[in-house]
Amino acid sequence: MEFNFGRPGEDDKAKAERMESMQDAVRTLLSCLGEDPARPGLIDTPKRVAKALEFMTHGYTTCPKKVISDAVFPEDHDDMVVIRDIEFYSMCEHHMVPFYGKVHIGYLPNKSVLGLSKFSRIVEVFARRLQVQERLTKQIAATLMDVLKPTGCAVVVEAQHMCMQMRGVQKTAASTTTSTMLGTFRIDPRTRDEFLSHIQRR
Question: What is the pTM of this model?
């Protein structure tokens, strides 16, 4: 996948200034933690952190419809399609620490299907932002409904949150599951149960 770093309309000079501002902020944080930003082990840390954050939030500059491109194909298929275990990594917007896990997607095509690799790309667009799991789940489902116009779409996200595991309550075994059911998946229990049975198989 190609990553479109930077901000819309940003030239090289503006990007350099923005990255330098991020590095200054990291130096300030290091000083506030009681560290010396100039010591050998930390002297390049501000640059590394700025570049890492640029990568981990590149979803802000990527349009979901653009990554889908021309991968919607006409197909006379109306049975359920399920894509399981799409790995993702994101950052909690409350503490800016990672949460990660898997996304499961199901949809009922309405005369068109989406190339399978594009589901992972859609997940990546929304995961690579400061996020909450509930919103991430809804954004993936809403995008698929908008692009494919299926008769129904379901998204389940299972994740572990470092903000619960390495700080706060420090519960290392805790996991969080969120779901969004739209169209037929919301109104028809049998359709919903079929999808859930697919993603529970191991």
Answer: 0.91
